[in-house]
Amino acid sequence: MMVIRPIQIDDMTSLYRLAEQTGVGFTSLIPDEVILQRKIEASLHSFAKMELNQPANEDYLFVLEDTETGDVVGTTGLLAAVGLEEPFYSYHIGTTTHSSRELGVHNIHPTLVLNNDYTGISEVCTLFLEESYRHSKNGQLLSKSRFMFLAQFPERFTEKIFAEMRGVCDKNGLSPLWESLGKHFFSIEFERADELTALGSKQFIAELMPHNPVYVNLLPESAREVLGKVHEKTAPARHLLEQEGFRFENYVDIFDGGPTIEARISDIRAVRESRLCLSSVGTPKDANEGTHYLVSNAKLEDFRCILIQRATPPGSGLVLSDEEAKHLKVDYKDPVRIVELSPHARR
Amino acid sequence: MMVIRPIQIDDMTSLYRLAEQTGVGFTSLIPDEVILQRKIEASLHSFAKMELNQPANEDYLFVLEDTETGDVVGTTGLLAAVGLEEPFYSYHIGTTTHSSRELGVHNIHPTLVLNNDYTGISEVCTLFLEESYRHSKNGQLLSKSRFMFLAQFPERFTEKIFAEMRGVCDKNGLSPLWESLGKHFFSIEFERADELTALGSKQFIAELMPHNPVYVNLLPESAREVLGKVHEKTAPARHLLEQEGFRFENYVDIFDGGPTIEARISDIRAVRESRLCLSSVGTPKDANEGTHYLVSNAKLEDFRCILIQRATPPGSGLVLSDEEAKHLKVDYKDPVRIVELSPHARR
Amino acid sequence: MYLVRPADFQDLPALERLAQQAGIGFTNFPANRDRLNDKIASSKRALQTDVVNPGDETYLFVLVDEATGDVVGTSGLEAMVGLESPFYSYRIDEVVHASPQLQIHNRIPALFLCHDYSGTSRMMAMIINNQHQNPTAMSLLSRARLLFIAKHSDRFTQKLFVELRGDSDKHGYSPFWESLGKHFFSMDFKKADYLSGVSSKHFIADLMPRYPIYVPTLSSEAQDVIGVVHEDSAKTSDLLLDEGFEFRGYVDIFDAGPTVEARIQDLRTIREQKSGKTLISTKSEIEAKNTDSASYLISAGHLEDFRVTSARAISQVAGLSIDDQTSERLSIGSGSQIQWATL
Amino acid sequence: MYLVRPADFQDLPALERLAQQAGIGFTNFPANRDRLNDKIASSKRALQTDVVNPGDETYLFVLVDEATGDVVGTSGLEAMVGLESPFYSYRIDEVVHASPQLQIHNRIPALFLCHDYSGTSRMMAMIINNQHQNPTAMSLLSRARLLFIAKHSDRFTQKLFVELRGDSDKHGYSPFWESLGKHFFSMDFKKADYLSGVSSKHFIADLMPRYPIYVPTLSSEAQDVIGVVHEDSAKTSDLLLDEGFEFRGYVDIFDAGPTVEARIQDLRTIREQKSGKTLISTKSEIEAKNTDSASYLISAGHLEDFRVTSARAISQVAGLSIDDQTSERLSIGSGSQIQWATL
Predict the structure, then answer these.
(1) Is residue C328 part of a domain?
(2) Is the pLDDT of residue D205 over 90?
(3) Distance of alpha carbon B278 from the chain centroid
(4) End of a domain among D253, D268, D283?
(5) pLDDT in tens, A11-57
(6) CATH number of the domain that D294 lies in?
(7) Are residues C312 and C171 in the same domain?
(8) What is the count of structural domains for chain C?
(9) Last residue in a domain, options D213, D245, D268
(10) Is 3.40.50.300 the CATH classification of the domain at A2-92+114-270?
């Protein structure tokens, strides 16, 4: 059975192995023991915090474990609030109009406006799943389990949450936006810039980026075209989040122009439609057929989330199999949270 | 019976009478025959347009008629796209962070960034209801009938729609934001600036407004406090729109700092939950008790919307009384759109 | 022999021909008869008015070929630009972005829209018929204005500037305009250029970019022509630099042609000009004594009667010895006050 | 009698006392023994090095009261600021906003963060013990630097600037800081002032406002002190303006004190200074002949041996006649090369 759970101190080796598989451009998971160790510790510390006045620098890291082999095969995370210690930059694609009544000319110019508007906002972080496990809805479980956590612990996050999506590169691996804008200001390579950002050294952005709005029309077409577009490999992830209610609000990455998408937590489909019910352990009817449901427990440090299948929609009680209950770490009459894995088709 | 319908050419006198009652600060409805005449004509022209490639300068104006007296007692409107001919300005409250690792200082500065980001977006316009009719849910009918129109004709509007809310004035009728910011740049009185804007002369804003972001912290407290706050008289209108799903996304009026709130049309509660059913004419059971519903026909130039009350939720068919059907201009088996007047309480 | 004098209405046809010849790029001299007529009228009004401080006066001069009596060139002065609507330029400023951590120290040039020349006197572009583009005629027409300023210094500001025509490619296109201006003006260069000559300049404020333009975001062709003079204006440019005009980082908003400026007192013609009495000799006497072949710019008369010509002459303690033909050309007699400077 | 000479390590205690007396507002002269020691060392290094172009050299001079031998004042020069990290100032620029429709023409002053003085030589604030704040001592200490520049002009840039201390209210608060700086630095003025003296200036770039500050959005108290000199620096300011320094719209980013600048060649002391031989007379001879009581600044020696004093003297064609006490003070003999300027 595939189970989502908070990362543990002894997951270090597994996490390193996953990091090794990510490849270039995946800056949130770098095979560097010191960094990974720090990440794990930050996560343990975050899950262990009992009293929170408001979301701060908590960094929650989850792993997907195959309980049959005991292997950790995927990871994903949530950040409680970005930009509180290091600035968080984005470009907002704004609109500037210029009109001359005298000449009857009215021009609408899109502009890139540098900002730190996501400061203090929660972030849905990148997700990685081992190649051989990319089937059987494991990707959806990994991605959407985060919403179950959000639904259960909204006080640990801000009202809004966002996700950054990887932008477009050309066939040589170059970002057209970077080539026509960023590199003039940075005089370093895109990869190096991206890497520094990932390592949390964002000071240099403030130091080097242009502070005035940039007129989009002055950029070459190749750069204009990629604004707000995702890398083809990221398209499914974007689709998945948009299905859940995430929306592009004209914020893009300052380096590659990839879109940032956002949602109010309470508007996310899986959050809004999920509900608590009481578990009982027994032999569920029609299991392993019908609709897929995400089910999580209501625990913090012992958070668990799995995928179940039921032919009949569960009511106010949910009958779990022994195995399901064991992996969810719930007992008779414990509260569990449940939601359909996929949204219904819209009217 | 109270009926919402498109304005007609012979409503001129009534509209003028309404305009006379609005008073200072209500710049969208000024007792000036030429302006009102132009407004009415623009509306007639907009409703008469059959083919639309995309929303443009259409301006839909509705009135609330008391069919017992034949009096027009309220008005409201929808704009298909603002800022296509004259620039539309707002301030975005952005965030700028400055940090010095050397000194361990990390500052988060809100800034006012001038923009035309609402260019090309649809607007829910201000609403006016005669004092003596501010009862029996007439205000809600007037306001929410617009959503029925949006639900029926989404192709005539943009994906997003917004509403501007009147900002705070002090006890002398002065806007604290204007006093500490706008007036330095305009050297005219607030009222005059507001009036010019209402008349569509927005060119002067581009000419006079500061183009660089303004640091909010440098403004006096009185001005900072009113950013994004509504005038107490507008608080109910804001509440009503927020209940329907409108949200404050940090855009404020450049003069008084009043909030602009926005929604995706498909997310507006009354749009999302409204549904089409077929009418029949007869004697409805349990009318005039139970839940209030908004009901509209599916016509454009002959658009009508009324309020009905039913004890049992209507199914796929809706039985209307003779009077209801007459005022809705529908017959047996005509499609009608229905939605609960108020949202259910949230879980 | 050439003479420079203020323009009058009878010069209108000749000026129109010159304007047509000049073509685009001469914003201030559109081939539009009404506008040219207005320019002459404005100049005459300025010359007839008692001016104590520089205001919106403009002065228009013509270059006359004395051999034929034809008007073969024109040049102008504006007492103060930017009174009705601001006078726009781009100021090239470097934005420094440095990161000690990365050991990067970038200086990014950016164009800032400004009106720093508002309130300053301007020399307007000079036009000379092709056949008369010789050093004497050009120098005379250009520098005659400086003698006028020296004589009537109350009518001008301390600083003086000139806009030089910017570079264009072989098809006559301005790469700068193609890369920048056209996005904002939604019209071609010719039209924008024409409009800025004939209409109020208000549309510039309405349509120009509000934020600084980072030079590296422009096409490389556009970057290459910033501050570069059009080859047709190279001679004019040399003359001005020789006079003491300097480039201080301001360029034209349409074609990025450079603007050069100077304090009036620092200009060579003005600094070195002398004034004194006319001493009349015969031509042969002058030729005989003028062993070093010195030629002079010589001006006489006030305002409407202001005249400048060039001639060989001999500088004396009391004044300048000129021949009788020259004195006749300037309509002066022996003992008249004149100004002169080495040609 | 006073003498100005380069500072040396034995001056450290005296300099520390002066720094303490000066208090806040003297960013470049913090009462920090290590920093002062560094300053002396840096000056000595600069004087001992063969410099061909201005770089990061700094020069520190002391004013010695010859009667007691005490160091009673100090002043400095920086060959070029902004090399390690940019040198920040606010430039006051007017933003013009005009609407012909409304007949409004507003000129809004705004503060633009810039580093226009990066790459320029600077005279650092001068400190003099209260008892010695007489015209002779002040003039000597201030202008001695100009004679040093005149002598070693390759070591400095063409332009020279000085920052003057800004105004503060009766409690010692800078209203400008209270209205602007403190929002961005999250510390008090004293600390920011101290840090900008002792640390890399990098934190300024990190924390300063990135966008121009519209002056009318500041408190009226803050607006009132922009470009206003602290009363304690009024005398210094007068001296500098007298010399030919001009205010060109630049103010300090912390207290809005004005920056004044000049081209070196335009400064009175440098323009009028003469050089020639020393002619030694007796004091009584000088007194007898010096009927117009002319006093001179007199400098002698190169670099480390550079000395300046003031004395009555008689200007001759071949040089300057000075008395033997003065020549002794400057450690020179008859025939030595000296420079002088009227005091």
Answers:
(1) yes
(2) no
(3) 29
(4) D268
(5) 999 999 999 888 655 667 888 889 899 999 999 999 999 888 899 98
(6) 2.40.40.20
(7) no
(8) 2
(9) D268
(10) no
Q: What are the chain A neighbours of C212 within 8 Å (beta carbons)?
A: 212
Same domain, D139 and D277: no
Domain with D129, as residue range(s), is: 2-89+114-268
Instruction: Tell me the residue type at C55.
Output: G
| Helix locations, chain C, DSSP H | 12-22, 33-48, 135-151, 175-176, 182-185, 189-198, 202-207, 220-225, 234-243, 268-272, 283-289, 324-329
Interchain CB distance below 8 Å, C96 and D85: no
The alpha carbon of residue C114 is apart from the nearest alpha carbon of chain D, in Å, by 8
CATH of A275-340, one of 2.40.40.20, 3.30.300.30, 3.40.50.150, 3.30.1490.20: 2.40.40.20
In which band, very low, low, confident or very high, does the pLDDT at C197 lie, cut at 50, 70 and 90? low
How many C-alpha atoms does D148 have within 13 Å on its Cβ side? Answer: 30
Active-site residue, selected from the candidate residues D97, D132, D230, D302:
D230
Query: CB distance from C95 to chain A under 8 Å?
Result: yes
Residues 92..121 of C with a Cβ closer than 8 Å to D: which?
Answer: 96, 98, 100, 115, 118
Residue A35: burial class (beta carbons within 10 Å; 0-12, 13-18, 19+): middle
> Beta-carbon neighbour count of residue A172 at 10 Å?
6
pLDDT tens track for C133-167: 888 899 899 999 999 999 999 999 999 999 998 99
Q: Where do you find CATH 3.40.630.30 in chain A?
A: 2-92+114-270
Is C250 in the same domain as C304? no
Q: Return the structure tokens found at D188.
A: 């008090």
Q: Do A87 and B98 touch (CB under 8 A)?
A: yes
**B274 CB neighbour count, 10 Å cutoff:** 22
B217/chain D closest Cα distance in angstroms: 7
Q: Do D306 and D338 belong to one domain?
A: yes
> C70 is written with which tokens?
């034809």
In a domain, C104, yes or no: no
**What are the pLDDT digits (tens) for C262-282?**
989 889 999 888 888 888 887
Task: Tell me: do C315 and C281 sit in the same domain.
Answer: yes
- C-alpha closest to that of C117 among C266, C250, C213, C27: C250
Shortest distance, CA A332 to any CA of chain C (angstroms): 58
**Percent of chain C having pLDDT more than 90?**
30
Asked if residue D215 belongs to a domain, the reply is yes
CATH 2.40.40.20 spans which residues of chain B? Answer: 275-340
State the pLDDT at residue A324. 94
Q: Answer yes or no: A231 catalytic.
A: yes
Mark whether C301 and C191 lie in a shared domain. Answer: no
Q: Flag whether C98 is in a domain.
A: no
- For chain B, the chains sharing at least 3 beta-carbon pairs closer than 8 angstroms are A, C, D
Q: Which of residues 206-225 of B touch D (CB under 8 A)?
A: 207-210, 212-215, 217-219
Contact partners, residue A39, CB within 8 Å, separation at least 6 = A15, A59, A61
Query: Does residue C168 share a domain with residue C29?
Result: yes
Does D104 contact B186 at a Cβ distance shorter than 8 Å? Answer: yes
* Amino acid A347: pLDDT: 36
